[in-house]
Amino acid sequence: MKNVLVVSYSQSGQLAGIVDVMTQPLREAGVSVHHEMLRPEPEFPFPWPFLGFLDAFPESVRLDPRPNRPLSVPSGAEFDLVILAWTVWYLSPSQPVTAFLLSEEGKRLLAGKPVVSVVACRNMWLGAFDTVKTLVTQGGGRLVDHVALIDDGPALATFITTPRWMFTGRRDAFLGLPPAGVNARHRADAARFGVALAEALARDGEKTGVPMLTGLRAVKVTPHLLLSERAGRRAFRVWSGFVRLFGRAGQWRRAPVLLLFLLYLVVMILTVVPLNLALQRLAAPLLARRLAARARQYELPSGADGARMAAHE
Ligand SMILES: Cc1cc2nc3c(=O)[nH]c(=O)nc-3n(C[C@H](O)[C@H](O)[C@H](O)COP(=O)(O)O)c2cc1C
User: Fold this and answer.
1) Quick one: 152 and 280 in the same domain?
2) Statement: the pTM of the whole predicted model exceeds 0.90
3) What is the DSSP letter of 44?
4) Closest alpha carbon to 37 in 92, 80, 100
């Protein structure tokens, strides 16, 4: 019998729900699944208080996370495959996932293991995926597959619906805007990844190093987000360093500079983001080939093509 370790952190339950849908076919195929839900100490609240949400920014970006409570994995347990399910906080992996990847316990569990990465976020996961890949590799794991599920609502609408969800816990449609988060159909369709993993495990596919989730539209990268995200990551590095000059996580003296950061974010979203998008449209003929090539790179290892979709519908 194959043993799979699932490591995840989900606040609203969105990612946890996707993980359940994905792992159901594994359980049905007789695979033993141990689901480790990370528990930061102290917990991050959900819904978020306003300042608490901003205060999570510097340490998320600087990979200096709040620690997790010890894991519940039985000592001596050996796994054939690790599924790492994560969300994005401030263009970086969420703090509990970073804490897991940096911890000795995390590295011990990843060492020598094939790892399937699953991200569910608003829409900006590229830079955070670079970080996840680096940390998995440093922990001795081999990243063999990657699945990305995003909110496919209009980008500007998600700048309203996502914060509303984070601050109130409500993700329903309102004011003519679509519901927040990954849409229900895409969440349900995540079962195909579990089916494909169960098939692969049955033939020792996890041992080959060959991706197991190709042909299933595991990842689709929108080329125009590449540049916005790179610019955002650079700015976030500078701002996070600046905020940390004023104090540690949770200290009130960081509040004024966090509010300044928020002002910067709002001005960026209202001015620079639309301007950037317009400029990119104009420059599209010049940039298109380069961006498309980089987008395809980010779609590795599992890829965007849907050749095996028919078999899973
Ligand atoms: C503090 C914080 C920062 C976030 N930053 C981003 C981000 O930079 N990019 C993004 O696509 N989603 C971002 N999100 C949304 C999350 O990736 C995720 O979709 C959401 O928190 C729901 O996940 P859950 O399963 O943990 O409830 C952020 C969420 C939080 C709480």
Assistant:
1) no
2) yes
3) P
4) 100
Atom of ligand 1 nearest to the CA of 120: 19
14 lines ligand 1 (CB under 6 A): yes
CA of 145 to the centre of ligand 1 (A): 21
Per the structure, the count of domains in the chain is: 2
140 plus 240 within the same structural domain: no
Distance (Å, whole) CA 56 – CA 249: 7
Gap from CA of 193 to ligand 1 centroid (Å): 22
Q: Does residue 226's CB lie within 6 angstroms of at least one atom of ligand 1?
A: no
Q: Rounded to whole angstroms, how far apart are CA atoms 176 and 218? A: 29
**Which parts of the chain register pLDDT below 50?**
none
Is any atom of ligand 1 closer than 6 Å to the C-beta of 222? no
Domain of 232, in residue numbers: 225-292
Same domain for 136 and 160, yes or no, is: yes
Question: Do residues 200 and 230 both lie within one domain?
Answer: no
Q: Assign residue 76 a region (left: φ > 0; alpha: ψ between -120 and 50; beta: otherwise).
A: left
Q: Quote the ligand 1 centre to 98 CA distance (angstroms).
A: 14
